[in-house]
Amino acid sequence: MFARQLIRIHQLSRGLATHANPGFATPATLHLKSGQSFKGTSFGAPKSIYGETVFSTSITSYTESMTDPSYRGQILVFTTPMIGNYGVPANTAPFDSKDVGVILESQGVQCAAVIVGDVAEKFSHYTAVQSLASWCKNHNVPGITGVDTRAITRLLRDQGTTLGRVAIGTDTLLPAPQDHEYWDPSLENLVDQISTKAPYQLNPTGSIKIAVLDFGAKANILRSLVRRDAAVTVLPWNYDFNSIRDQFDGLFLTNGPGDPGHCMEAALKLRQTLEEWDKPIFGICMGHQIIGMAAGLDAYRMTFGNRGHNQPVLALASAGSIKAGRVYVTSQNHQYALKLHDPFPQGWEPFFINCNDSSVEGIKSTVDSGKKVWGVQFHPESAGGPLDTIEVSLISLD
């Protein structure tokens, strides 16, 4: 009897969940440039698009992933079977010492499209204001559900990140695109598209002044700084920081989308900074790659990149609370990485290495160099993801 009552309560609670009502009747197809096609049904915006097909192993925080500017131009395949069950929150916050104007990682959805095995028809969460389907529609982003995401993921894992086409509605009746028709976002300077066009300030009365080069910053990077009482000045990615560097106590280089090779201008300017400036410098993801390129390292395109909140990295050196020899679980989203040179450039040493593929996950200046520079490929400030390495982002503020 008690068990029946529990079942009824559970069924009632699901019945009270808000209907997403995405309208699943419209056909949709994902075409890959490598020749495979996957048929499903459409949700979100009823439009067809091209993009770069990638997969993420994240099991939660789909809203943070989709608003991360590093996913710009990408067709994002979620390996988790069901996506959308807790809906989407209102994405507004104050501009103060605790927040930076948004709850998520940017104002809008950044990925080109989303592919899921099963999009939730209902959502239930106390902060949710709309479904994943309606959110995608509002931001003009198409989605496909009802496809075998495991098969897609295995293809991408084996053959690498692949250009794709999301065809919606009557476009599904057309033949798959020819090779020359696929759009490759890596050929464009996506950083220039997404970076701020003019400097702006956050928490101007903060006790420490930090300049941020914006390559496509997640909001949580800026949020983490202002919550620690930093006065933050956000600059365009190619801004001449050297002309104003004496005004600041440190420099932060953010994450961003695409090929770091398009940002050589920033790397060359940073090289001058590294040679002439002795204050702390920290970089995350794209920022880490720019630091590496400025130091003389090369960046390369990985087969399928690392995307997810479960990437293990091994610390090769100690800094702050990070201890050499320990493995940390991290949140990542990148297609490019720094090459592990032997020997490493003078004055530099590897900081972290990926336990799965041995790619470079961090570099740092040596103690003998007299510099205070760190870069990590992963996101120590999470959102979403684990907090194992949260202290890394505080090293430069110590």
From TrEMBL:
Instruction: Give the enzyme's EC designation.
Output: 6.3.5.5
Query: Which pathway?
Result: Amino-acid biosynthesis; L-arginine biosynthesis; carbamoyl phosphate from bicarbonate: step 1/1
InterPro entries recorded: Anth_synth/Amidotransfase, CarbamoylP_synth_ssu, CarbamoylP_synth_ssu_N, CarbP_synth_ssu_N_sf, Class_I_gatase-like, CPSase_GATase1, GATASE
Q: Which GO-annotated molecular functions does the record name?
A: ATP binding; carbamoyl-phosphate synthase (glutamine-hydrolyzing) activity; glutaminase activity
- Asked whether the UniProt record includes Transferase among its keywords, one would answer no
Entry annotated with the keyword RNA-binding: no
Q: Give the record's keywords alphabetically.
A: ATP-binding, Glutamine amidotransferase, Ligase, Nucleotide-binding
Domain of life the protein comes from: Eukaryota
The biological processes this protein is annotated with in GO are:
'de novo' pyrimidine nucleobase biosynthetic process; glutamine metabolic process
Which reaction(s) does its UniProt entry say it catalyses?
Answer: L-glutamine + H2O = L-glutamate + NH4(+); hydrogencarbonate + L-glutamine + 2 ATP + H2O = carbamoyl phosphate + L-glutamate + 2 ADP + phosphate + 2 H(+)
Q: Which residues form the Carbamoyl-phosphate synthase small subunit N-terminal domain?
A: 26-167
The UniProt similarity line reads: Belongs to the CarA family.
Subunit? Heterodimer composed of 2 chains; the small (or glutamine) chain promotes the hydrolysis of glutamine to ammonia, which is used by the large (or ammonia) chain to synthesize carbamoyl phosphate.
What is the name of this protein? Carbamoyl phosphate synthase arginine-specific small chain
UniProt source species: Laccaria bicolor (strain S238N-H82 / ATCC MYA-4686)
